[in-house]
């Protein structure tokens, strides 16, 4: 047994232990912390599976931003009465356990019984990479071969933000999301919020730029930009914008909007929806990605900030 | 034992655990976490099948990878929406119970709606 | 030359792994928040620093080496800030430190 295999077994065991802890531990806060650790270790599994693009996304969004979201919710729900809920009876739990084990066993069987060699689209995706001029096959699939998925996913982000905003109470309608964060302006958090974004913005743009040829891309870069913005908000150096701001709304629709315009352009002038003309493929993809990284950063940050809670006048 | 088998077992177990937690845990926030666990297990299964399918010379199939990246972002936005709903429920009703006939603790919403 | 580089990597990364292990044991075993933070920062600063030092000879290019060093510096910055914040919260009002 090689060292790599031992490492993989230990990694899988720790991930599994954290998953069990997340489900079984009585306190919600501990479960949340367990889930954040789980998300970060799952990113390591993705590295072992040679999917570095996904590992970056999982670490930035699944572990990082998702962790902030869950921890924030757990902290705000701390005063919720835990006795108001009743655990289901033993029979229900037994049935649930049986059902879950059955599904897990079926999945294990499906994995072990995959035909060898398994079906794959990798050679096809790499063989057509010349058409876009990008060397990273994952970016090619995201932005060209399955561009429809990515465009609709931007629409999902937009719908989610509309859903979150519409949960505002009447006085806060169109106001600023989340509580106003106060922190010592000469404290260590304010210091970090002044120092780190200068580095973080460069790293975010670098990861976005390098995504053309190496692992990275608009999602990962956008998540880093969003976290930098949130850091500045949490340090009290700036406030969240009111959601009725037109400039903000323009940024939110820029990504899917440009995608749609290019798609319809392909339909009118070219062979099909989202068909890029060969000569313009790379500049078009780059343009869409620039609009997308702004949209992703703004949407992820605002999803974390939550529903509007303060009216604009105050 | 190859890495595909090891992580495949792990992913299947995560799906099972997530499903169990989703059904049995009464607290909504715990249900959301369990749902995310289930989702992460499903994403891992995608990655494992992509790894199995990658022919010599490719580390992993790029198509399932792209689907998983899209999926992670969609799962995050769904979680954010669910948490916003939960916080609003807590703000309005003063508790986070999902029972239909549950008595509301805090009375009318102080923010008024 | 290659042997010397590999030896340096093995020694430094092992030492770094030892500090991570010690830090984790301290995190689990120490009685209160401040002592746990002390253990954790040892793992962060020394452990990560030694692992990066050990990986530097294997980086291959100047760019790779600079990236590794910047990861260490960012880790130091984040670790120092977060432990300050946790310690301050623990001192003010939180559960007895």
TrEMBL record, chain A:
> Which chain regions cross the lipid bilayer?
6-24, 31-49, 55-74, 94-114, 151-168, 188-212, 218-238, 250-278, 284-305
Annotated family:
Belongs to the CPA3 antiporters (TC 2.A.63) subunit B family.
Keyword Protein biosynthesis found: no
Instruction: List the keywords (alphabetical).
Output: Cell membrane, Membrane, Transmembrane, Transmembrane helix
Native organism: Bradyrhizobium neotropicale
Q: A GO CC term?
A: plasma membrane
Keyword rRNA-binding assigned to the entry: answer is no
Q: Where is the MrpA C-terminal/MbhD domain?
A: 14-78
Its localization reads: Cell membrane
Q: What is this protein called?
A: Sodium:proton antiporter
Where is each Na+/H+ antiporter MnhB subunit-related protein domain found? Answer: 189-305
Topology term for the membrane = Multi-pass membrane protein
Q: Where is it chiefly localized?
A: membrane
From TrEMBL, chain B:
Keyword Transmembrane, does the record have it?
yes
The residues that cross the membrane are: 6-23, 35-54, 66-90
Q: How does it sit in the membrane?
A: Multi-pass membrane protein
What Pfam families does UniProt report for this protein, alphabetically? Answer: Oxidored_q2
- Top-level taxonomic group: Bacteria
Q: Which UniProt keywords apply?
A: Cell membrane, Membrane, Transmembrane, Transmembrane helix, Ubiquinone
Q: Which InterPro entries match?
A: CPA3_antiporter_subunitC (IPR050601), NUOK/Mnh_C1-like (IPR039428)
Cellular component, GO, one term: plasma membrane
Location relative to the cell: Cell membrane
Q: Does the keyword Transmembrane apply?
A: yes
> Which PANTHER family does the record associate with it?
ANTIPORTER SUBUNIT MNHC2-RELATED
Family membership noted in the UniProt record: Belongs to the CPA3 antiporters (TC 2.A.63) subunit C family.
Q: What name does UniProt use for this protein?
A: NADH-ubiquinone oxidoreductase subunit 4L
According to its UniProt entry, this protein's organism is Bradyrhizobium neotropicale
Automatic annotation (TrEMBL), chain C:
Alphabetized, the UniProt keywords read: Membrane, Transmembrane, Transmembrane helix
Q: Does the keyword Endoplasmic reticulum apply?
A: no
Q: Membrane-spanning regions, if any?
A: 68-87
MF terms in GO: sodium:proton antiporter activity
> Is rRNA-binding among this UniProt entry's keywords?
no
Note the coiled coil stretches, chain numbering.
none
Protein origin, superkingdom: Bacteria
PANTHER family per UniProt? ANTIPORTER SUBUNIT MNHG2-RELATED
Query: What is the protein name given in its UniProt record?
Result: Cation:proton antiporter
């Amino acid at each position: 047994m090689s060292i790599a295999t031992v490492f993989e077994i230990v990694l899988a065991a720790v991930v599994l232990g954290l998953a069990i802890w997340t489900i079984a531990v009585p306190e919600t806060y501990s479960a949340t912390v367990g889930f954040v650790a789980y998300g970060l270790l799952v990113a390591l599994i993705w590295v072992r599976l040679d999917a570095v693009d996904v590992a970056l996304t999982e670490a930035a969004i699944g572990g990082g931003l998702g962790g902030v979201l869950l921890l924030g919710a757990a902290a705000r729900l701390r005063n919720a009465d835990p006795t108001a809920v009743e655990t289901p009876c033993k029979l229900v739990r037994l049935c649930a356990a049986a059902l879950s084990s059955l599904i897990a066993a079926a999945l294990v069987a499906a994995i072990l019984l995959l035909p060898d060699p398994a079906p794959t689209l990798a050679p096809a995706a790499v063989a057509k990479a010349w058409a876009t001029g990008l060397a990273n096959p994952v970016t090619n699939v995201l932005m060209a071969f399955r561009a429809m998925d990515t465009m609709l996913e931007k629409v999902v982000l937009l719908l989610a933000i509309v859903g979150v905003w519409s949960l505002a109470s009447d006085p806060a309608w169109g106001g600023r999301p989340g509580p106003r964060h106060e922190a010592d302006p000469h404290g260590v958090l304010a210091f970090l919020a002044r120092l780190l974004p200068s580095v973080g913005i460069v790293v975010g743009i670098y990861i976005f730029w390098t995504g053309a040829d190496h692992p990275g891309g608009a999602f990962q870069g956008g998540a880093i930009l969003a976290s930098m913005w949130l850091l500045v908000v949490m340090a009290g150096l700036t406030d969240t914008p009111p959601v009725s701001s037109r400039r903000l709304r323009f940024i939110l629709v820029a990504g899917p909007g440009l995608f749609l315009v290019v798609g319809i352009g392909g339909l009118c002038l070219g062979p099909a929806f989202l068909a890029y003309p060969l000569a313009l493929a790379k500049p078009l993809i780059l343009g869409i990605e620039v609009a997308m990284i702004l949209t992703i950063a703004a949407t992820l940050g605002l999803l974390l900030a939550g529903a509007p809670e303060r009216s604009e006048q105050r | 034992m190859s890495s595909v088998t090891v992580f495949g077992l792990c992913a299947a177990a995560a799906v099972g655990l997530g499903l169990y937690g989703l059904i049995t845990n009464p607290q909504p926030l715990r249900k959301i976490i369990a749902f995310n666990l289930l989702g992460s297990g499903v994403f891992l299964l995608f990655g494992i099948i992509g790894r199995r399918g990658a022919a010599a010379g490719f580390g992993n199939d790029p198509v399932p990878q792209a689907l998983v990246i899209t999926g992670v972002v969609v799962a995050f936005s769904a979680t954010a929406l669910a948490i916003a709903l939960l916080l609003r429920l807590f703000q309005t009703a003063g508790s986070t119970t999902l029972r239909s006939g549950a008595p509301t603790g805090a009375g009318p919403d102080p923010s008024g709606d | 030359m290659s042997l010397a580089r590999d030896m340096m990597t093995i020694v430094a990364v092992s030492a770094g792994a030892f500090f991570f292990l010690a830090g984790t044991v301290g995190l689990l075993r120490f009685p209160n928040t401040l002592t746990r933070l002390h253990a954790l920062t040892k793992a962060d600063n020394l452990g990560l620093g030694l692992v990066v030092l050990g990986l530097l000879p294997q980086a291959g290019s100047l760019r790779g080496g600079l990236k590794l060093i910047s990861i260490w510096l960012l880790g130091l910055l984040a670790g120092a800030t977060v432990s300050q914040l946790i310690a301050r919260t623990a001192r003010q009002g939180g559960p007895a430190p």
